[in-house]
Amino acid sequence: MAPGKDQLALLGGKASVTLDQTDMFKWPRFSDEHETAVLDMLRNGNLSGFDVTKTFEQQYAENLGRKYALCCPNGTAAILNAFYAMGIGVGDEVIAPTLTYWASILQVYNLGATPVFADVDADTLCIDPHDIERRISDRTKAIVVVHYSGMPADVDSVKNVAAKYDIPILEDCSHAHGALYKGREVGSLTEVSAFSLMSGKSFAIGEAGIFFTDDREIFDRGLLFSHYARHNEIETNALQKYAGLPAGGYKHRLNQLTSALGLVQLRHYPEQMREIDKAMNYFCDLIEELPAIQLIRPLKSSKTTKGGWYFPLMKYNKEELGGLSLQTFAKAIGAEGSVCNPGSNTPLHLHPLFTETDVYGHGKPTRFAHLPDDVDKSRFLGAYPVAEKVYQSVFQVPWFKQFDTAIIEEHAAAYKKVVEQSASLLENDEGDDSSIGGFSTFFTESRNNRS
Ligand SMILES: *Cc1c(COP(=O)(O)O)cnc(C)c1O
């Protein structure tokens, strides 16, 4: 067949996506206001102070309806700090979903604690509340909930389990700034919440992290751990005698250039998130009826729940397209000029760092270094059937930043065209290989945009 207008681009036809995409995927989106704020900061100096950082913390906390916020140089540090502040220490166990970025949990090693993974829910990709309960022991000191890929987790169900055993929850909101769960913004739902604010994230100000709590002692412990220059803010009497030196041996002060950016971004991100939400929902509506694609999005009928849309993922069901591999499907979408990146994070329990690596020379895996030798390991070894399967059957769709219907319609048309003509790809389909997914390089800047 001669290449015609409607043939798949992968087979020599014309690509579906033709319009200029420069602005659509540009991220972060900075304005003159951002530039002015940074320049003012440069001219005024005091980059290593914390007055601007404190203003940023207070305003962000106020927006979220939280009492206290503490900035750190990145999300990884904010989560480490939050774990310490929550009292996680030697011999403790912390439950986290296995399907997440490593920085949701790996920091517990620094505190002598053990990560215990839970499986995820097949429809939301977030931690499965039912699986949490069988992972709990009398050493469990916290549960981490991640709103994975922008989808709010089933926090109420996790809270029910946590309340039964009196275990606090840390919400890792790094994928979901601005997402709503039953009318409440994520980050305001549990005892402690933490966000990465690095450039790839939805609230993007370079490199920064922040955690929130309403508990003064938790906040004070955060200060004690790594913010020695602010120890005069500590109100908890029992902690005051330790002031002066950072208890953790860390310095987690944020560069104030970034805080200045953050203050401006606080004014802009609700509107940016609203536009992204509108654009993504429009795209989802257009591809919703297509076979083989299962949307991962908050219920359309709900006015109070919305996605955070970071690296939006959808599920692929190849049986509905005659068994066409995800990788060939994705290649065909890519050839049409749209985005379809197969896979998500490889489940963390599959990496040797979480099974056998002896990081600090304990003479045994760091994983178990501080647990009694006779501890029952069955709770956290073995299979995680949902996560192990699902990470290779999801794909990232375009992360639209602007509500530009003409461009979004072109991308939807690309998906529709490939689905409708998928049979023509079966003959040369070599099947999926094992390269789908990845531990750390998965969420990279290049995947952020159309590549
Ligand atoms: C990005 C990210 C982090 C860590 O944030 P950094 O700012 O990159 O250190 C933590 N958790 C999740 C889920 C993330 O995606």
Polypeptide structure, described:
It contains 13 helices and 13 strands. The longest helix is centred in the middle third of the chain and has 32 residues. The chain has two domains: 156 residues, Aspartate Aminotransferase, domain 1, CATH 3.90.1150; 232 residues, Aspartate Aminotransferase, domain 2 (3-Layer(aba) Sandwich). The model has no long low-confidence stretch (mean pLDDT 94). Helix 1 runs antiparallel to helix 8, helix 3 crosses helix 6 and helix 8 packs across helix 11. The chain is 32% helix and 11% strand. The chain is globular and about 75 Å long. The strands form three sheets. It has a seven-stranded mixed β-sheet, with helices on both faces. It has 451 residues and is α/β, with parallel strands linked by helices. Helix 5 links the parallel strand 4 and strand 5. Pyridoxal-5'-phosphate binds next to helix 3.
Question: Main attributes?
Answer:
single chain; 451 residues; alpha/beta; Aspartate Aminotransferase, domain 1; Aspartate Aminotransferase, domain 2; 2 domains; 7-stranded mixed β-sheet; 4-stranded antiparallel β-sheet; 13 strands; binds pyridoxal-5'-phosphate
